[in-house]
Each structure stands twice: as structure tokens, then as C-alpha cells.
Amino acid sequence: MLGKSIFRDDAHGKVTGSALYPGDIEKDHFLHAKLLFTGQPHARMIRMDTAAAEAVPGVVCILKAEDVPVNEHGLVMLDQPVMVGLNSKKPFSDVSRWEGDRAAMIVAETEEAAARARDLIEIEWEQLPVVTSPVEAMRDETIIHGEEPSNVYKHYRIRKGEMAAGWAAADVIVEETYQVPMQEHAYLQPEAGVSYIDEEGRVTVEVAGQWTHEDQTLIAHALDIPKEQVRVIYPAIGGAFGGREDMSVQIVLALASQRLREMGINRPVRIQWTREESVIGHHKRHAVTIHTRWGAAKTGELTAIEVEMILDAGSYNCTSNKVLGNAHLTVAGPYRIPNAHIDSYAVYTNNCPGGAFRGFGAPQGCFVAESQMNKLAIALGIDPVELRLKNVLREGEASITDTPLPAGISIKTVIEQCADKFEEPFSGAQVLPRSFQSLPADPKALRRGRGFACALKNIGFSFGFPERSEAYVELRGRGEIDRVVVRHAGADVGQGAHTAFKQMVAEAVGVPYEKVEGVFSDTAYTGDSGSASASRLTWMTGNAIRGAVEKALTLWKQEERPAVGFFRYQPPPTEMLDDKTGKSNPNITYGYVAEAVDVTVDIETGHITIDRVVCANDVGRAVNPNLIEGQIEGAVVQAFGYAVTENLQSKNGHILNPRFSTYLIPGIRDVPQKVESLIIEEPDPQGPWGVRGMAEMPFIPLAPAITAALYDATGVWFNELPLTPGNVRMRLKNTLVPDLT
Amino acid sequence: MAVHNITFTLNGEAEAAVVPSHMTLLQMLREEIVMTGTKNGCAAGECGACTVLLNGEPVNSCLVLAVECDGQTLVTVEGLAHDRQLDPLQQALIEIGGVQCGFCTPGVLISARALLDRNPHPTKADVQAALVGNLCRCTGYVRIIDGVLAAAERA
Questions:
Q1: Shortest CA distance to A41 belongs to which of A656, A452, A611?
Q2: Which residue in chain B has the smallest CA separation from A275?
Q3: What is the C-alpha to C-alpha distance for residues A265 and A198, in angstroms, rounded to an integer?
Q4: Taking Cα atoms as reference points, which of B33, B29, B3 lies closest to residue B18?
Q5: CA-closest candidate to residue A472, choices A547, A537, A532
């Protein structure tokens, strides 16, 4: 059953329109909710008057900060109020630190009544200094979280080897400053959900998320009720990419249902965000500024690196401290670096919070590491692929944390295979930039170039997090196994996880795929799966499924009918970085990837198109090749958006372009002319059947491969993203061809 | 608030609705008729998830007033399959892998149907031109293009 491109189970419902997303769920006698965002990047609430709002016909209740039993949440640190407002038991809850902070939840008979009431809520604010520059925030003139001594709330270090010796051994030094921007997830389905009290009296929320049991935990915490009294169900999920890891409508919906129960009203509640609410109201990929110096001997060996990285965490931590940790390690690339001095800081500001987004710190770290390697290759006169092969980590060698990477390092293979594939002749490259078809480009202005980059990224949660995944497998039948039911919480956010799970169950039991049934993503029936993130889901779930099937088969042989196996998989523990040196075993295992691109740039318009991408991605063992290729193609185009088209703009803590007409995600004409997916299968010794996590990897090296190709095409390096036509043209104008007007 | 009694053909069936002047076609489909295959991704004509056929032409239903549909013919994603027989486009997207999260899929299918109805043998560039208004964040579009071309070939 592994290695087969089984059609995904949910596709039929999705092509016929019968699949239900959170906004499609129908229940009788719905009430409708609206959230009031504060719109205040930094301000203290002085007064809030809801009298006029409450008088609107149809308004059932208005929930405020004082109504939240425990007014705090957060995936890692509980630093975020459920609602900002007065009379909350949680200190500092009267301060809005983000324009997307919530001030009130209005429940009414109709959406219109809820919206009208929302507009009638009067709030008086005392303005506080809005801090939007992380460097300015580091001076601590304005403290954004009153309970914290400093806005710099996380600092990681690497102290490895002897820096003086490293610089002395360097024949070439490349020193640069890089700036990478925020990125919006832009999943097509805006946040939505319904809540109600289920037949067993549980506060039940149906929503699109990434980790049912974490939603359940945070709801229970805020409502101050036992977890067993909260139920979370995921219907079809319209994309996630990390953007649904944090709480959006989960807690406020549960709060509304709890309040309605207290009022004796037994009616379900629904909420549906607009696109603007979605963009304003959830975290982004982090903007990061990095200053770095890399040294290499003339033979190509790296001798030392020094890095200072400042990560704009925005107003709340979300997962910033973990993202910082990943960026802190991936900034060294997959290379053998004898001497290193790295300081990385997470800093609170009043910008939109940074958080999880496909790659989780690795795109930022990798952009720096790979740009540095490409520049060193030029400076040394060594082929960029050769330079990498000279420096990549091998089994047993000390990585940046001074410990070996887990066994199964395949970076050399992915680099070699990517380069080999790229050398194969490719005809048919279309030279004209396609998005400007109405304005035919001057052929003299078109320049072409090639670029290469590679990356590694951890699979699973790091730094001592207690990773786990729980699965139930039930074998039914008498003499033979007629049917197998797997119960697992893992979220199918669109990647096809549930189909892959069933393939792995069929493989482990030894039955055809058709005999496997799934019960998924409902805390009432499943154990804790951990999150659909960190390229971990197939890997962890597969290990849990193998354990559960083994137990079920043992019971089956003992004549138990049905035979139910439960297994909680726990990978080997990981460690937090040593505070002073960073020495540690921070990760369970890694994924490896390399990409090569052919790019065309119009030096008059600054317009970039990708003609060809080769992505070599080690997946360990391909469970479903079609789904894997879908992940690679999707990640490449999403990364093209990150590198080139997407330009989220923020001023004084306000996002200026929360719409698809102003925040440009790639459209169907931005697709590279050819995306070649090279699926490599070097088994991960710890992975189920050798499986390796893969879905983030193809995102990671694209941006530095594009900047290398741009250099190849124009002789100009680009250290800042995004490479929008305006930005590219400006830099080319300033450096390459000053006479361009 | 003025309301209007309108009648129209929806997926081959006669249908009637009472709609306020400001109600969009998207709102009527999702909230009045409770047919939720047509998706709301932006409510501003920017993402294409709400695309339906109005007299055979693809339109963003969030930009059309329901009252404009009086006497007209509508097809939504629910109307593409006939007698449980999937449209070749639906079948091709399933088989080729043009569906991931699926939220853009109804709009993609409708725009593609309109294309094949007027041009049964499109080129890749034709497909790109027809789907330029349909955003997808998951697939990178590669398998959507391949799926539409495959469906054209099979038909």
C-alpha cells in the first residue's frame, strides 16, 4: 500500500461541493457572532460602553474581558489575553498591544444585528507609544508586556570553537546584512466555526485548526473547566500552513456557548471572518534582520561564522521562541562549521505577531546561509555545488550545536541528485515574462540566470518538547480481518494526511486500502496526535500506527474480537540549547532538500519569472507519490510568493493591504514553466518504513536559489525580500544601470 | 427594505427565492438556498472561490446581486455532475491531484467548465487565461492545469 498514488478520500466531496468546511455547517436555530478587534496597536482601555450595542434588537449577549474566567492563552507562553478590556482578573489585560486584539464578542439573532451592535460599542483609549522597530524595542524605552523586564524576551547563543583561530584561517570573508519580510498564510478559507453543547454536555467547537487537543487544552484553560468537558472537531479544513496553529475563533466560540448555557439558551453559535479579519486577526511569518560574517579557506572549507539575528516577534509570542530556535540553528545551514558565534533575539513590538508558517524559521535561516554560500562560491571561484559538497555534514560530525545530527544524513545525496537532474537538457524555456503579456518585453532587457540552494530542517517539535502521537487501530471480523478502523486526531489541512494514514494502516495490517476506515480529528474519539505541522504528521502518525497495529494483531491472535490496539508513540527526547554555548541535541530528526532554478529577469521592469525548478527532496519512503509531488509544487509556488510577489505592508502597527487585490499571492500565470520533483528515498532510520517528513522542505531553499540566479543574470546581489518588480528595478537602477530612468 | 420575488433555473431545476435588494448571489446560494458548495473566500471578487455560471458565463457570485438573476440560468459546482456521473473535469482533478484543501476547487471547476464549453481543446495558455481569477494556495496550480488539459483530452 505504500508507494501508491491512491486518490485522496476527500477529493470526491471537494469536487462535488458536498465537503463541509466550518462555514458550511448547518444547524437549526443558529445564533451569529461577530468579534470586535481593538484596532489599537498600543493603547490602554479607559472606558467601554456597550449600552447602545446591547439595545440593538436581536442582540443576545456581549462578552468582554471580564467574562473570560482565565483571560490568557498562547501555544507556548500564556502571554496573550483572550480579550482586552477592563475588570479582568489577569493583570495588564486592559492594554491592547496589537490591532488584532479582541475587545468584545457579540452574539445576536442575525449577522447583521451582531455587526450593527459591534459598530455601536464605544471605547475610550489612552494612546501608548507604538513600537514597530525591533531595534527600537530592544532599547526598552517602552515596555510592551508590563509584566516583563524587557521587550527582548528570548536570547539564544552558539559559542563553538575559537573565533580568532577561525578568522585567522579564513582567506575570504563575506559580511552582509539581510532582511526578510512577514508573509501572510492566505489560506483560501477564512476562519470560521460553530459551537454548541453536545449530547454529553460538552462545550463543542467545530473549527479549522491544526491540533484538536491543543485547541481543547487552551479552551479548557480559558473557560476554567476540565478538558473532558470540551470537545473539538475538525471538519474539512481550507488550508493552514501554520496559520491555524494559534487560537482564532476557538476560545471565543466556546466562551459564547458556555455563556448561552448559563443563560438557559440551548442554541448553536456560528462565526465567519471576512478576508480582512483573517489577515488582520492572525499571526504571520516573522520578519527578521540578520547581520552575518562567514569565513572560508581558499580550498573552500568554512572556518568561522558570526551571526546576529533579530526576530520581530510582534505583540505576542505565539510560537516565536521556537521559530527563533529554528532560525538560530538553520542559519548555519547543513554545514561543518568549526567556529561559530551566534546570537539570536526575539523581540516584542506592536506589529502583528509572528508565528508558525511552513518552514518555521528555516526559510529565514536558510536564506542567510545559502546566500552566504553562493557569495563565498563566487569569491573563491569554486562551483556552488562543489563548495557545498566540501562542507556538508557527514554522519557523526559535530553540527552547529556541537553534537552530530541524527543518523541518516542525506544532504550530500539531495545536492548531487538535484545538480545532476538540472544538468539534463531542458528545452522549451519560454523567454518572455508571461505576466506582462500585454506589454511585450524588450528582448534586450531580458537576462537569464541559474541558481542553487539546499537546506535542512527538523522534523517534529524540538528543544525538549514532549513529542507524542496516539493511535487506535481496531480489527473487525471473525476468521479473517474484514475491516480495520483507525482512530487518530491528526488534521488533514489539505495535504491528504488522512489518505496517507489509511495507506499506512493497510500496509501495517496487510489488508487492501478499501478495508480501512478512519475516524479522524474529534477529541471525543481520538487520542492526542500532536500538531499537523513541523513536517511531523506522517512521520509521527506512522510510528503510532505501527505500534497500535502490532498490539491489535497480538490481541487478534489471542482471539479477541474486535481487537483494539492503542499506542502512544514517543520519539527519543530532545534538549533545550545550553544557555551559554547552545550545545545540545535539539532535534529528533531532519529532512533534506536541494533546489536549482532558471530565472528570467526583465531589467527594465524588474519582473522575475521562473522558467524551471528542480527540487530534490528526500522523503525517506514515499507513502503516496502524487500527494508528495503536490506538496513540492505547492511549496515551490508558495515560496515564489514569499520571494517575489507577496509584500505585506504595515505602518504604525496597522496592516495596510489585507486583501488579495493588494497582497499578491501567486496566480496561475506565475507558475514556473516547469517544476520537476525529484523524490529521493534514503530511509530515515527512525521513520516508519523509513518515512521522512517533507512538506516544508521544498519551500525553504527557493528564495536564495532565486537570488543566486538573479546575480547570475545581472551581477547584482539581493539581500532583501520580496523581489517585487519595484524593489528589483530600484536596486538594479541604483547599482547595475544607473542610466535607467 | 425592498424585497423581490425572483425565479431562476439552478442546476437544471426551477427555483424561486425572496431576496432583499442588496443580497448578493453568493449570499442567496449559501444562506437562503443553503447550497454551500460555492465558497466565500473574500467577498470582493478577488479570489474566484465563489465562481458560478450565469447563463453559461463564469461570474464571481459575490459581485452579482441576487435580484439580477431573475429569469436567468445558474450552474454551481453541485450542478456539474449528472446522475452521479462526475463531470470529466471533476474526475480528472481527483485522479491527477488537482485538489488539496479543496476550498478553491468549486470555483476552479466552474471556470474550467466555462472554458471547455467554449473551447473544447484549449492550450496550457488558454487554461491559464481562463483560470487567472481563481486563486489557489495549496497546489501551485500545476495539477490544476494538467487536470483541465486531461479532461479536455478525454471528452
A1: A656
A2: B42
A3: 13
A4: B3
A5: A547
Q: Which residue of B has its CA nearest to A190?
A: B41
Q: Are A582 and A159 in contact (CB under 8 A)?
A: yes
**Amino acid identity of B134?**
N
Reference A372, options A177, A166, A593, A157; nearest CA is A177
In tens, the pLDDT along B76-113 reads 999 999 988 999 999 999 999 999 999 999 999 999 99
Average pLDDT over residues A84-113: 97
The answer to whether the CB atoms of A627 and B97 lie below 8 A apart is yes
Q: Which three cell numbers stand for residue B114?
A: 466555462
CB atoms within 10 A of CB A267: 17
CA distance A20 to chain B (A): 8
Residue A97 CA to chain centroid, in angstroms?
23
Scan for cell 546576529, then name that residue.
Answer: A308
Residues forming beta bridges with residue A231, ordered by sequence position: A204
In whole angstroms, what is the distance from residue A304 CA to residue A175 CA?
A: 12
- Residue-wise pLDDT for A459-473, tens only, equals 999 999 999 999 999
Quick one: A264 exposed, middle or buried, by C-beta within 10 A (0-12, 13-18, 19+)? exposed
- One-letter amino acid for residue A486 of the chain: V
Type of residue numbered A687: G
- How are beta strands A650-651 and A230-233 bridged, if at all? unpaired
Burial class (CB in 10 A: 0-12, 13-18, 19+), A443: exposed
Measure the CA angle with vertex A634, ends A671 and A373; round to 5°.
85
CATH of B88-154, one of 3.10.20.30, 3.40.50.300, 1.10.150.120, 3.10.180.10: 1.10.150.120
| Residue B144 contacts A where some CB pair is shorter than 8 Å | yes
Mutation site for B-interface testing, chosen from A12, A26, A188, A673 by largest number of B Cβ within 10 Å: A188
Beta bridge partners of A347: A152, A312
Tell me the CATH number for domain B3-79: 3.10.20.30
Closest CA to A267 of A276, A277, A259, A278: A259
Q: What is the pLDDT of residue A430?
A: 43
| A560 shares its domain with A672 | no
On the 0-12 / 13-18 / 19+ scale of CB atoms within 10 A, A632 is buried
Report whether pLDDT(A235) > 70. Answer: yes
Alpha-carbon dihedral sign for residues B102, B107, B113, B115: negative
Residue A186 is assigned to a structural domain of this protein: no
| Among candidates B81, B135, B144 on the partner chain, residue whose Cβ is nearest the Cβ of A16 | B81
How far apart are the C-alpha atoms of A697 and A586, rounded to whole Å? 18
Sheet holding A563-569, edge to edge: A516-520, A481-488, A469-477, A563-569
List the CATH number of the domain containing A482: 3.30.365.10
Nearest to residue A530, comparing CAs of A574, A595, A483, A465? Answer: A465
- E strands, A522-572, are 563-569
What letter would DSSP give residue A335?
B
By the 8 A CB rule, do A341 and A163 touch? Answer: yes
A231 belongs to a structural domain: yes
Tell me the whole-structure pTM to 2 decimals.
0.97
Q: Whole-angstrom Cα distance, residue A183 to residue A51?
A: 39
Q: Residue B86 to residues A15, A127, A237, A662, B112: CA-CA distances in angstroms?
A: 9, 58, 23, 36, 14
Backbone angles phi, psi at A244, to 5 degrees: -110, 15
